[in-house]
Amino acid sequence: MPDELFINENSGVNANASSASQHYPDFTEFKTLRYFPDSRAKNCYSFLVTPGVSYQIRGTFFYDNYDNRTTLPSFQMAVDGTIVGSDFITDPYVFAYQEVTYFAQTDLTYLCLSRDSTNSVPFISAISLVNITAPFTTSGSENVSYYASGPAAADSLYLGLYLMTKSKWNFNGGSKIIRYA
Description:
- The protein has a single domain (3-131), classed as Jelly Rolls (Sandwich), CATH 2.60.120.260.
- It is globular, with a radius of gyration of 17 Å.
- The strands form four sheets. Strands 3-8-5-6 form a four-stranded antiparallel beta sheet, with no helix packed on it. It has a four-stranded antiparallel beta sheet with strand order 10-4-7-13. Strands 1-2-9 form a three-stranded antiparallel beta sheet, with no helix packed on it.
- The protein is 7% helix and 34% strand.
- It contains two helices and 13 strands, in the order βαβββββββββββαβ.
- By secondary structure, it is mainly β.
- It has helices at residues 20-23, 151-158; strands at residues 13-16, 32-35, 43-48, 54-61, 75-79, 82-86, 96-103, 108-115, 123-124, 126-131, 133-134, 144-145, 163-164.
């Protein structure tokens, strides 16, 4: 769905990623992106969530050299005020993502993009927010993530810490990109 529902009006500029169809024909969300040229702004998306429920939020980035610059951008992504990634785009034609699993503390969650010391222009291709609460209880917590590995991880999430996804692999011999586990 379009991102206008989740961001302040007039925030950012939409652009086309012209080679997205060539590189990732199954990913229509890579065909456009939103970039944020205002150097003073912290650019935040807000989503309604349920407090105490485990979510996975992912920012996906397909640069495609849309701005015809010679250097890849570097900027920060934060979830609910905690920086969860920066300097993660390493190739103009390969998508990158930053993904975290956490328990929502309030009824709103925020994904924000801001400039870092390089002063690069932040952008984003897609955002996914998935409720991944498991139907079981561990270590007294009411809701536990499928990604939580045992009571210690579940307790860490419940206390407001994040689990970062380092990478995902498809061990089933397929070449498709894994969107959700």
